[in-house]
Amino acid sequence: MTHPTFSNLRIDSDRLLGRLMSLGQDGALEGGGVCRLALSDKDKLGRDRVVDWMKELGLRVTIDKIGNLMGFLPGREDLSPVVLGSHIDTVATGGLYDGNLGVLAGLEVISVLKDSGYVPLRPIVVAAFTNEEGARFAPDMLGSAVDRGSLDLETALAIKDSDGFVIAEELARIGYAGEAEPGHIDPYCFFELHVEQGPVLEEEGEQIGAVTGVQGISWTEYVIEGISNHAGTTPMRLRHDAGFAAASVAVAARKVAEEIGDGQVVTVGVNELNPNLVNVIARSARLTVDMRNIDEQKLQQAEKRLAEEIAAICKAEGVRYTSRTLARFEPVMFDQNMVDLIADVAMEQGRSVRCMSSGAGHDAQMFAPVCPTAMVFVPSQGGISHNIEEYTSPEDIKAGANVLLQAALTKAEEK
Amino acid sequence: MTHPTFSNLRIDSDRLLGRLMSLGQDGALEGGGVCRLALSDKDKLGRDRVVDWMKELGLRVTIDKIGNLMGFLPGREDLSPVVLGSHIDTVATGGLYDGNLGVLAGLEVISVLKDSGYVPLRPIVVAAFTNEEGARFAPDMLGSAVDRGSLDLETALAIKDSDGFVIAEELARIGYAGEAEPGHIDPYCFFELHVEQGPVLEEEGEQIGAVTGVQGISWTEYVIEGISNHAGTTPMRLRHDAGFAAASVAVAARKVAEEIGDGQVVTVGVNELNPNLVNVIARSARLTVDMRNIDEQKLQQAEKRLAEEIAAICKAEGVRYTSRTLARFEPVMFDQNMVDLIADVAMEQGRSVRCMSSGAGHDAQMFAPVCPTAMVFVPSQGGISHNIEEYTSPEDIKAGANVLLQAALTKAEEK
């Protein structure tokens, strides 16, 4: 029997889009968008649907103890598999694409193989990880973290949501407390196709992002304590205005981003004054600073510069401040050969490519320390994500899934 | 009968302090401070107490249709009276002094006259005006505004508090819907002794403030609309950050105050971001700017400069904004002869004096357009007011009340 060459294989974008729309019905919101919080009844419906598709495709389905779904397609040899993974949980007002695209594009790769009769050298696994969003249970990327051992299973199972519901019980309730040990699959490499969730590809008119890594994240909360006083009777020179200090920090944060340049982003997303009244100088302010960079050294430089700025601002205004680290993750670098492979495949397919870092966290980053890992990004219209208006065009979805298909099959033929 | 000269008369500070403490029991809060919101049950108790004192002193008590209390002491001739007025309503967490001091110092002036047997040429009226604070019913200075005709009686009676209770009904309920027409007393001049509610006298080591006027007030609300986006995936150059624009406005507001200088105060007391999340660029921000100056021209200059700043900031960030005037009052200038009289009397009594403007509104400003008017300020410890920790020392109260006594009697001897 002559084995067909895989380079001519192409995904069926109608089938992929059809599955995206079908999955989007589980938790569909009136007016558009999806609410499929992890381990909710709607998540169960979505999982059931994905498991049905996996079974229809003849995959061997396993569910591990943290609820991660894996569909296993045997290869010509019993080697470690190429894993194509993402998630199907959403935020409370999510869209059709975030996460879902990566899982269903994986199933589309399997479908193409089934249709063509082509069997790759290595097995291929399609994975859907539990609670990537972190919208119901903290931390995010929970299932992939447990799979890769960076989060302990027992700890994870005991985590509660804000209403006190425990992961272990919710898994059992929806029938997804599996038997398999997390990490039972030892991946040869890991791919994740995902929507960009940002505006860069669209703004620059590029079709494919070859993701080089995930930015390091530094979240700090500052609480500034000044002296509350009457807005009319307190001369400017006698003020200790926590609100003015907080505003000055927000302005300084932008300045730090510009100084560091080169991909450094800084956001003051929270700024609250107390008592927050028109005619009262604020007694206290709480603000958060979110800083990200793909370069750990530069991220540290940004942290240091901001710390200098806030110290100087608070000294000048005569206010006190405390700071608290809310989150700190070092940048994750993806495998250069994998990134090159994605870029090469995309260009062979006539797509324009941008190498870029991810500003958001993804399941793929949990795999980067243990196996060659990379991600494919497709444009998000308007850069909008975590929003019912999240949208990626059928053309871009098709382009991204074809890159995933060819890159995955290339790796699946490696001995 | 030899008429005693009034220049040797002095107030009895123990009696005045005793009345302040007694009145502070009506609405006393556990832990200190007073809650005696206008037309509440506690306000009724306070009013009853003041009326009892007025009657004990032999004053003719009238209550007008908006609930203003007046105690009338006849003079040697039937001339227009010297009015000593303030208010006894408080904010929800108020102190013992704000307003109450002016009313009770007026009663103390009457008590001194009664004790000495001295009858001034002109009548003296002690007045307590309804709802000066505006803490329950808007606007503030309501009773004095109705008395002076700048607010229509029918309009005022129909005003509701936030729970829907109507002034007319609340006046009737507590027994203070009087028969007298507002404005039935035509004042020869008006004095108000008040705590400074700011830190200037204390900071500068002065004992008496001779108040030259009340600052003009300009309150503007700005709503800035940007584009919400992911804090990690949105490059700095593609941001339209409402939070950054709001912070920049708050910093610019301080700059405008410094540019105008010379008593200009600017406060951004409200600053709210939406959605106010660590990792989301703010879609919108709402902030308020409170600007005050005793000089109308300079206040207009400050308004103009801030408008220029916010337009430039929002243009640079690519965000839209709307503005809404929440309040606008022109400055009120007190009568220069009255101000000089207060300063002269204070210096004759060995007190240090500062001529100063009031940053807060007072009943006196309603009288300034119709008769010679001025205020006496005494220091507020720490500049604190509208707070249960409001405090003015017995020594300062004594000094201020003696200035009021001598200034009022000087005017009361004018033909």
UniProtKB/TrEMBL annotation, chains A, B:
One of its GO terms (molecular function) is hydrolase activity, acting on carbon-nitrogen (but not peptide) bonds, in linear amidines. Zn(2+) 1 binds at residues 87, 98, 194. Keywords: Hydrolase, Metal-binding, Zinc. Its cofactor is Zn(2+). Binds 2 Zn(2+) ions per subunit. It comes from Cohaesibacter celericrescens. Belongs to the peptidase M20 family. The keyword Zinc applies. SUPFAM superfamilies: Bacterial exopeptidase dimerisation domain, Zn-dependent exopeptidases. Zn(2+) 2 binds at residues 98, 133, 386. This is Zn-dependent hydrolase. Residues 213-315 form the Peptidase M20 dimerisation domain. InterPro entries: Amidase_Cbmase (IPR010158), Bact_exopeptidase_dim_dom (IPR036264), Peptidase_M20 (IPR002933), Peptidase_M20_dimer (IPR011650). Signal peptide: none annotated. Pfam families: M20_dimer, Peptidase_M20.
